[in-house]
Specification:
The structure holds two protein chains of two kinds. Helices cover 44% and strands 12% of the residues of chain A. Chain A is α/β, with parallel strands linked by helices. Chain A folds into two domains: 156 residues, Rossmann fold (3-Layer(aba) Sandwich), CATH 3.40.50; 64 residues, Orthogonal Bundle (Helicase, Ruva Protein, domain 3), CATH 1.10.8.60. In chain A, strands 1-3-4-5-2-6 form a six-stranded parallel beta sheet, with helices on both faces. In chain A, helix 1 runs parallel beside helix 2. The longest helix of chain A is centred in the last third of the chain and has 18 residues. Chain A starts with a strand and ends with a helix. Chain B has a five-stranded parallel beta sheet with strand order 5-6-7-4-8, sandwiched between helices. A three-stranded mixed beta sheet of chain B has the order 1-2-3. By secondary structure, chain B is α/β, with parallel strands linked by helices. Chain B is elongated. Classes of the chains: A alpha/beta, B alpha/beta. The interface between A and B is medium-sized, with 27 and 28 residues.
Chain lengths: 231, 441
């Protein structure tokens, strides 16, 4: 039974689970979210951070986790759906967990802000969990409805920090491991030092290497990386 | 007794629907079987609406499969238990009709004991306590207004809790104005507007939050107007909140505005430092946390705009302490609120204060920094200096420097003068509070 609600055209990344989420400096945030999912009380999180700090992964991991515990959840990436109108949020209050990705897309849009404010109230009344992410602090969002602004400030606000190089190496190794492919820390470091450092780009690179390793029946070694990436 | 047909239908539905949907929507339905017709009773219009839209066809299909006859299924609001005339009524009010279950929606934690009183809210609290002791009497309606996150909902629900404590049979219903609108729209769609009217007109206390959201919703205002009149006539208590003085709400009918003023209208102001500290100490105690006074003072001084933000900051400090397994200290609080403090420091600078004050008094920033001594310039300059002292960590000489190279004693004089004037002149106090609010929210 699928307990995760998704808008049309959106699918959850199966890889984006807590098991595959490297916490690094964000351990407290990840633990807080996990604890809230186990609780029967209302929780609201406002989590912000730069691109590539794992906001989307965290939200999707929370959805997977909720579903695994027979709770209903939804993942709403507002970057794709803010143009559709706020009716999109109707019925979300009945779910145990609502994850809203990138609230900045609706900041300043009065009808959306009102709808989110009511959604907050309803979720609170039903003791659900609401997790909202953004690229900036609540105060810098440009929310025009004070009722919504203060409610966002009421929740637990956390800033996600960028992963260190060591954490990124761990993330790359884990990504390969989940596909049954071995990647040594040394090779991961080699990739890291020769690629764009943003985690998303690194993941694309590592996926490309993994695909090549599978089709060539090879291990991912430094010479193999050099060949595939033409270094 | 539950209908046998419905019991069979339930088994089918349990297999057909996800457990969460079955529990949320189907389980609350009561069923009565009358002459082969299945009468399904939903607890409220919300459930009725959802079941009608999502499951009605499915239910009809299952019924026709079981009975091999065309289905006769009627969906209504009500409850099998209450509709039974054998059930003793024990009603406190003559106006309470049978067959309606009122859901209070009141948070029991919002009571007078945990409401922290200060200068900013003592009038509102006193009025609220009076209303809870004598509902439907002198202060009807009671309207509490003030900015967001200042405790209006808490006070309103405290009245409701106290009313129910004093009279456990009293029917008190709390709802947000938007819920009233949504319920009304659904009632109209399903042609159950009379049930809707009966529901809201048969309470002993109606608590409506954030009435500013009625603005520009004419049909809802019309319905609320009649509900309002009916309740007032029946000496049933009405309590409302609004984020501003109701006469200032655009898009609200004049007749409503005037009726809102028939009883008592009280304001809640942002809490002063002592109250903020007391609120933090109280919230911490409720969370079972030992909060040192110096930490409460630090957080209270940093966060002044509203209680929700204050609570958010406390929650963050407590979360950090629990995570790191440390007791709460000033250093831990500073670390936990590092982002917030950094942001405040970035947003509240002397330059920003000068710009905001100049805009507020419609003068130029250049005038604030000049040597001009006319009253129209001196007073805003003193206010900007006092605000700089209050909101930034700059020293008196640094502030003096930023105001055209003035001496630190000038800044000291300005802060004392503004403090004195705020106590003597209500207009200056208002200006100072407005600027403070603008700069800190």
């Amino acid at each position: 039974m699928n307990l995760i609600q998704l808008p049309l055209g959106v699918s959850l990344n199966g890889y984006a689970t807590f098991d595959n989420l490297i916490s690094g400096p964000n351990k407290q945030i990840h633990i807080s979210v996990k604890q809230a999912l186990l609780s029967e009380q209302f929780s609201c999180f406002y989590i912000w951070g730069q691109k590539g700090t794992g906001k989307t992964h965290l939200l999707q991991a929370a959805c997977h986790d909720a579903a695994a515990n027979s709770k209903s959840a939804s993942y709403i990436p507002l970057q794709h759906y803010s143009d559709l109108g706020e009716n999109f949020l109707k019925g979300q209050d009945l779910l145990d967990l609502v994850c809203i990705d990138d609230i900045a897309n609706i900041a300043g849009k009065n009808s959306w802000e009102k709808a989110l404010f009511f959604l907050f109230n309803e979720i609170k009344e039903r003791n659900g969990v609401l997790i909202i992410t953004s690229g900036c602090n609540v105060k810098e969002l440009g929310i025009t409805l004070p009722d919504l602004q203060t409610r966002l400030e009421w929740g637990l606000k956390y800033k996600l920090a960028e992963l260190s190089d060591l954490d990124k190496i761990d993330a790359l190794v884990l990504r390969c491991e989940s596909r049954g492919i071995e990647l040594s820390a040394e090779t991961a470091k080699f990739v890291l030092n020769r690629s764009h450092r943003a985690i998303e780009t690194l993941c694309v690179t590592i996926d490309q290497l993994a695909e090549a390793a599978i089709s060539d029946h090879r291990k991912i070694t430094i010479p193999f990386v050099k060949t595939i990436l033409k270094l | 007794m539950e209908s046998l047909l419905w019991s069979k239908c339930l088994k089918w539905l349990e297999n057909e629907l996800p457990q969460s949907q079955f529990s949320t929507w189907v389980r609350p339905l009561h069923a009565q079987e009358i002459n082969g017709c299945l009468r399904l009773l939903a607890p409220n219009s919300f459930v009725l609406d959802h079941v009608n839209e999502k499951y009605y066809d499915l239910i009809c299909n299952i019924i026709s499969t079981i009975t091999q006859d065309p289905p006769q299924v009627v969906l209504e609001i009500g409850s099998a238990g209450i509709n039974n005339s054998d059930v003793p009524t024990n009603q406190p009010n003559q106006h309470y009709p049978k067959g309606i279950i009122h859901s209070s929606n009141i948070n029991q934690h919002f009571n007078f004991e945990v409401f922290v009183e200060g200068k900013s809210n003592q009038m509102a609290k006193a009025a609220s306590m009076q209303v809870s002791e004598n509902p439907g009497d002198a202060y009807n309606p009671l309207l509490i207004y003030g900015g967001v996150g200042l405790g209006k909902t808490h006070l309103m629900q405290a009245i409701g809790n106290e009313m129910m404590r004093r009279n456990p049979n009293s029917r008190v219903v709390y709802l947000h104005s938007e819920r009233f609108v949504a319920d009304m729209v659904k009632a109209l769609q399903h042609n159950v507007i009379n049930e809707f009217k009966k529901y809201y007109r048969s309470v002993d206390g109606l608590l409506i939050d954030d009435i500013q959201f009625f603005a520009n919703k004419e049909r809802s205002q019309e319905e609320f107007f009649h509900t309002f009149n009916a309740l007032l006539e029946g000496q049933q208590q009405i309590i409302m909140t609004c984020d501003r003085y109701p006469k200032e709400v655009q898009g609200l009918e004049e007749r409503l505005k005037s009726r809102f003023g028939w009883g008592l209208t009280v304001a809640i102001e942002p809490p002063e430092l002592e109250t903020r500290v007391a609120i933090l100490m109280g919230k911490a105690a409720q969370m079972g946390v030992d909060l040192p006074h110096e930490v409460a003072f630090f957080v209270g001084k940093r966060i002044r705009s509203n209680i929700r933000e204050l609570e958010g900051a406390l929650r963050r400090v407590v979360a950090n302490a629990r995570f790191t397994n440390q007791s709460i200290s000033l250093d831990l609080a500073k670390e936990a609120l590092r982002d917030l403090i950094a942001l405040q420091d970035r947003l509240v600078t002397i330059e920003n204060i000068q710009k905001t004050v100049a805009e507020y008094f419609k003068i130029r920033v250049h005038d604030l920094l000049s040597t001009r001594r006319s009253r129209s310039i001196t007073r805003p300059r003193q206010m900007a200096m006092a605000l700089s002292k209050e909101l930034t960590n700059h020293s008196l000489p640094e502030i003096g420097d930023a105001f055209g190279g003035r001496d630190h004693t000038t800044v000291l004089h300005a802060t004392r003068k503004i403090d004195e004037l705020c106590n003597l002149d209500i207009r200056i106090q208002e200006d100072y509070r407005n600027l403070l609010r603008t700069l800190t929210t």
